Amino acid sequence: MIKFNQKVFIFRKYNRIFVISKERNTNSINKMKMQHTTKNHQESIEAIKARLEYTVACMQDENAKSQYTLPSTNKMIDFAEQENSWKLSRLVWRIGELKLTECLYNVLKIKKLIKEDVEKYAFVWTLGRIGNSDNISIIENILNKKKISESLKLVCIQSIQMLSKEESEIKNLREEHLSLLPAELLVSVVSKDENSFVTFLRSLLKDNQINSWLYVYYLLVHDKTIEKYALLTILKDIPMRGNYFKPVRQILKAAEQFDDAETVAVIYWRMYHSEPTSGVYRRGDWVRKNNSWTYVYKGKYATFYNSKGYYERGAKVEKESKKENTNFGFTPKSKQYFKTRLFRLLLKTGFAASPLYVDLATSYLLMVNDLQGKSAYTESFGRYHYNRETRRYDYLRYKYYYLPHWNDLVMHKIIHSKIKNVEIDVKLVGVKSVGKEVKLNKLKRVELFPKLWDNANTQVVRLLAESHAKLVQNFAARVFKANPHFAENISAEEIVKMLHVPYLETNQIAVDTIKHYFSKYEEDRAIFMALLHCSVPEAEEIAIQWMEKRKNELLKDFDFVINLITHPKESVNQWIASAIEDTVESKDLFTHLFEYIAKNDDKNPIALEKAIDFMKCNLKEDAQKITDEKLRELVNHSNESLNLLAVYFIKNHKKSIGDFPHDLLLKLMESERVKVRAGGIELFGLLPEEDLYKQQVAVASFCVSPIAEVRAAANPIAIKVSQKYNDFGEDLVETLSSFFLLRGKANEIHDSIANLMTSEQMRPFLNSLSSKRMWRMLNSKKYPAQQVGFSTLKQRSDGTDLEMETIVTLGKHELKDIREWSFQRIENQSPKAIYEADKILRLLETDWEDSRHFMMKFAEEKFKARDWTPELLVSLCDSTRDDIQAFGTKMIRTYFTEENAYRFLLQLSQHPSARIQQMTSEWLAKYAGGKPQTIKKLKPFFLTLLSQVNKGRVAKNRVFDFLETEALNNPEVAEVLIPIYERLVLTIAKGDKAKCILILNQLRKKFPHLEMKLEASST
Questions:
Q1: How many CB atoms lie within 10 A of CB 405?
Q2: Tens of pLDDT, residues 485-494
Q3: CA distance 628 to 630
């Protein structure tokens, strides 16, 4: 602490200056945050140097303390005045951080004071950053000591590697490192394909053992390209379990010493965005001491998931963390530590105006991706707060606006540090603004350390060219627009990348740069191809104007022409089509375009289709002369579009189909691809009819193919040949009809065959089918077979030659068209149908409603009284269908006469229907009254009707009244009815039983001579 006067104390913590005033309450502290300027930074370096000189002087002379004068208080504002305010390790480390090479001499002098491991670590680390090859021996002496910690050993190796300049020293070091790598990696040859090498390197990682070779591998490749790319790719998704986490931490420490910003950013980003895989909990027990129970902690214990995915717990942290192959490591506390460390590293390098800040921030921002970021959202809630003045609780509403990527505090700290009302702190869960929504698209320069970004043209352009996050692109665009001179040094490759990113603002910057420095990029064709893909409206116009000026030169470059032909924009395709019309040798273009198509690897199917369409539309003459060798290449290609192109070439070739090699057509027809096979069959159909006539079996097999496209191609062939050769058509129809007779359910193949056989061209050949085959198809359960059978029937008959019974059978068919055809035949042959009324009336018993309605209407309109016999009318009433019974009742009422009354009563009296029995009861008094013989014959009717329970009440009452009147008036009738009444008394319900007993009593009184089995009760 530095004491300025009796009233004010000033001390520093991290990058904040705290002022404590004694004049104010001790609980009230005024905190002032002071930004480091360049001048303050220089003063800090002077203070460090002064502190180092002071330490050296004290080491050499004990009296130097009183003789040596420290810098003025203003220069010591970052440090305390007391001797022990900074540890020696911190002083040495800070020198290494700032790379104060001029302090190397004094750092070597204080080597004698260095005793603890942490001081040795700082000394070796700093020596590696500011030393030279002469200092390697000092580090080697420390490395060769027997007792040395693992961390100190690693930093020694890193420092030696940094200081080694001679090839022999580097060679020895590399040989030592190579022995630690997996054997597979040593014998492998690095592929030029980065992705394949990533796959190979990933395969060497073992989930059940420590992967310490990763650290060694980093030391060997940190300055290489392909190998380092592979390692960084793995670090982006490597599991954060202990056996991976340990080498990752070692790589991080080495990368920080090497100032390898890219590796540092990748690892920090990974730790920041990964969930902890381990945990720590404290365990203890209650112990009785001094007559009281005290809870005593026994230590910290680890929780983690092992390599097999099983959860483990119970091992002590100290013991588990010291294991060579441990799955314990990345805990929530570790994550918070690295999160804080990343913030501190950014602020430290930024305040020190170090170039490392911009490199580190750039590398981190390039890791941000819109696909992985959290979306913006709004949170609204309310809380009650106590108001001391009103002594009430006030309900206050709060509204938080969470920014896009709200979970990435580091990114927002870098690019949005100075936005008002936005909270960005390492301890926050998310980045949010309070009370007012922030319009990010209208922001000005709000990033951290803007002056550093003003000198970072390379990094800003890289963000514009490579970033996949909209917020990062907007930030880089703001910095770029504030520094127009950045555009002077943009390379053509970077311009192309900026034109391809899906961000309009960045595209516009690239277009404006091209317009301003047109002469610089005029010779680069890749830029103008990128302009054609750009979404900025004027980009395509600039490219077209450029191409118009250099048309003759550009059209000689067939690769360039093909790129325009396969361009996704239709306007570009149209321009190149019109440009090559009179300029380019079509034969040469066809050759190059064919090579492009033949080498297609399916990565861009849209471009392939455009090339094929262009060849079909603009190079027709050359396509008509294509050789058999090129056709064979297309036919044998693995791409379906190219197989179909071969079909197109053969179909439109100047040669006839028969002149092509037979194996080409056979290959197409046997293809596993449906469309290709259909195309091959279509070509097969172009052969002369004489040749196709001999291939009846093949044509028939194509017609019944399970593939719809093949059948569609085969049907026209079958029709064409059948039109010329009648026997071909007849045989084909016979063959196809047999397909309907196979077992199984109907499917789309049967529908296709039916459509072919019933087509206008093939219908005449149905006459050749036998009657047996026709009726089998008509009676089939398959709908398509019924259609073919019906077409055959209509083709050969108008119905006059058919038996009426057959026509009636067709009227009961499940196919509506057949039923309607049957109805028409009955209408046309009315006299014959009426004559065989007993046969046509069978239509009334069918399940099809339209058949019953037709027959009832026909009978009602066409039948006369002479046509209705009692048997026919009664048969209608015998139907089990209500509508037919009602129709029968209506007909009987219409045609009932006194001459046939007895026959009707006799036949209808035994009908079970309540409706018929009621109708019969109405006729009793009229046609059976006073006729004992008729009543006697109707005895079964009376017994059936009167025995019914809970039904036919009206008819029963009418019969009871009729029988009572007839029995009391005629003893002969009474003698017939007494047995009926006696039987009913024993079987029917109470109400009717009483009625029967009453009638019996009346009959006994009136006809005492008649014998009765039941005793009459007194009334």
A1: 24
A2: 999 989 999 9
A3: 6
pLDDT digits (tens, 9 = 90+) for 424-448: 877 777 788 877 778 877 788 889 8
Q: Which helix (H) or strand (E) holds 305?
A: strand 292-305
The answer to whether 329 and 262 are in contact (CB under 8 A) is no
End-to-end CA distance of the chain: 135
For 283, 499, 855, the CA distances from 296, given in Å and listed in that order, are 9, 66, 102
Identify the CA nearest to 740 among candidates 707, 701, 706, 786: 786
Torsion angle, CA of 516/518/520/522, rounded to 10 degrees? Answer: 170
Whether 802 and 825 have beta carbons less than 8 Å apart is answered as: yes
Residue 787 has pLDDT above 60, yes or no: yes
Q: Give the Å distances, CA to CA, from 941 to 794, 878, 880, 972, 988.
A: 50, 15, 19, 18, 16
- Looking at per-residue confidence, does 426 or 411 come out higher? 411
How far apart, in Å, are the Cα atoms of 958 and each of 362, 561, 942, 1003? Answer: 109, 105, 11, 19
Instruction: Give the C-alpha separation, 569 to 576, whole Å.
Output: 11
Tokens of 343: 């913030």
CA distance linking residue 701 with residue 404, whole number of Å: 62
Paired strand residues for 294: 287
Residue 461: predicted pLDDT:
95
pLDDT given for residue 952 in this prediction: 59
Provide the residue type at 42 as one letter. Answer: Q
Query: Where are the alpha helices (H) located in 439-484, listed in sequence order?
Result: 450-454, 457-466, 470-482
* Residues in contact with 133: Cβ distance below 8 Å, sequence separation at least 6, in sequence order: 163, 164, 165, 166, 169
Task: Answer yes or no: are the C-beta atoms of 527 and 514 closer than 8 Å.
Answer: yes
One-letter amino acid at 994 equals: A
Q: Cα 991 to the chain's mean position, in Å? A: 77
Query: Largest alpha-carbon pair distance within the chain?
Result: 168
Apex 629 CA angle, 628 and 634, nearest 5: 95
Q: CA-to-CA distance for 363 and 355, rounded, in angstroms?
A: 13
- Which of 610, 684, 673, 614 shows the shortest CA–CA distance to 644? 673
- CA gap 983, 979 in Å, rounded: 6
Euclidean distance between CA atoms 411 and 433, whole angstroms: 16
Q: Which of 335-349, 472-486, 801-815 has the lowest mean pLDDT?
A: 801-815
**Number of neighbouring beta carbons within 10 Å of residue 448:** 19
Q: In 61-166, where does DSSP find H-type helix?
A: 64-67, 88-98, 104-109, 117-130, 136-143, 150-163
Distance (Å, rounded) from C-alpha 57 to C-alpha 457?
A: 44
Question: Which pLDDT score is estimated for 125?
Answer: 93
Q: How many residues are listed for the chain in this entry? A: 1019
